[in-house]
Amino acid sequence: MCYIDKSAHVRQNFKRAQEECIPWIKRQRDPRLIKTEKRIIICTAAVVLIALSIYPTVTYLVPFIKYSHAVSLMEKGSFDEATAAFEEMGDYKDAPEKIGECAELKEQAFGSRLSGCGSFDGK
User: Which residues, in sequence order, are CB contacts of 109 under 8 Å at separation 6+?
Assistant: First the structure.
């Protein structure tokens, strides 16, 4: 029985095929296909950059704007609206403390209005 080293034969044929075919394949690439691939890469990169810029905006900027708006409502005296806005924010910054502060300021404002009205005898 004769043993033939097939792996050497396969390697030799593969190398020959590689030397003959790959330059031919490279020459046959369509320039339109290359342009299309470049456009796909550019569009994909643009979408990724847009997505990466949206994340910090939604995560940091929007809650900050809502918080600032709620603080301005509290300073204007719209305590019920400010309390609702702070409650909507959950644990952002010191929103839970601001809810309590709104309640205290509302009581103070309500108390000062009652004291300004004088006494009511009911007669």
Answer: 77, 79
pLDDT at 84 over 80: yes
- What is the Cα–Cα distance from 88 to 97, expressed in whole angstroms? 13
| pTM exceeds 0.85, yes or no | no
SS (H, E, C) the chain: CCCCCHHHHHHHHHHHHHHHHHHHHHHCCCHHHHHHHHHHHHHHHHHHHHHHHHHHHHHHHHHHHHHHHHHHHHHHCCHHHHHHHHHHHCCCCCHHHHHHHHHHHHHHHHHHHHHHHCCCCCC
Q: Are the beta carbons of 61 and 81 closer than 8 angstroms?
A: no
How do residues 10-52 score in pLDDT, each as one tens digit? 566 677 766 666 666 666 667 788 889 999 999 999 999 999 9
